[in-house]
């Protein structure tokens, strides 16, 4: 099994992800250039953090039209596991694979910190390595991570248990303290925190391991 | 083919917080400009395109505005179209 890591012009966490998956978790990976269209043999696809296409227009707005993402959309619609981290989460909302949008942090600061999160795994296949209500610590590093959606969408997300990660102390003004969202089918997860930066004992916490280790159980879509 | 010129004004929906606008409003006070109750920052996009007729241009620009220039989850847009002017 191989995990696809999408590389956009401006991605900067693609190699961190490769290290976390290969170096820390002994999984194999393949980089997918933004113009690639062949996802054959992949058991999951991850959209990494960074500044895809310079974040021009809006974060994720240009990336959404990358050729590889049309295939990622199909992959997700057929039940394939898709993870968007930070900029990857922004791309997933721009694509409409997850609802809402990520906007400028409430106090305008770019926040680089480690935050406490509460996990509500529900049916999210990425989070089955955590218990319900478990508190974990993951790094965040973003200027535009304030999740926004209208009240009706928020109520729907609550009702379907899609708010799988919440901030303990909301750092950016996100609606509902939302740090991460899963789709209803449980195969697409987007989150602002960086699990790939919490997999190696050399760099601190290990709370991200269980998320990426969920890939060990997945089968090709 | 005629050239059409358009301006698309993209603004945050009223329900969406605009922290950059708020920061700018605060700076206006420090400049000595008082009495500003609202200051919200949007984006102006100028477009020139060739199209066989006005309706086609309008349709293309609406698609562009709704699907790319603005994110309808957080933004509204307004299109102004002028036709037949050479750049």
Would you mind describing this structure in some detail?
Chain A is built from five helices and eleven strands; from the N terminus they run βαββαβαββββαβββα. Chain A is α/β, with parallel strands linked by helices and 221 residues long. Chain A is globular. The model of chain A has no long low-confidence stretch (mean pLDDT 95). Chain B is α+β, with helices and mostly antiparallel strands and 87 residues long. In chain B, strands 2-1-3 form a three-stranded antiparallel sheet, with helices on one face. Chain B is elongated and about 50 Å long. Chains A and B meet through loops of A and helix 1 of B.
H/E topology pattern of chain A: EHEEHEHEEEEHEEEH
Cα radius of gyration of chain A in angstroms: 16 Å
Shape of chain B: elongated
- Quaternary structure: heterodimer
Terminal CA distance of chain A reads 11 Å
What is the count of β-strands of chain A? 11
Which strand order does the major sheet of chain A show?
2-1-3-4-11-10-9-6-7
Strand content of chain A: 25-35%
Helix content of chain B: 25-40%
- Which two chains share the most extensive interface? A-B, 20 and 12 residues
Which outline of chain A best applies? globular
Strand order, sheet with most strands of chain B: 2-1-3
Instruction: Please state the average pLDDT score of chain B.
Output: 93
What is the helix fraction of residues of chain A, given as a range?
10-25%
> What is the mean pLDDT of chain A?
95
- CA-to-CA gap between the ends of chain B? 13 Å
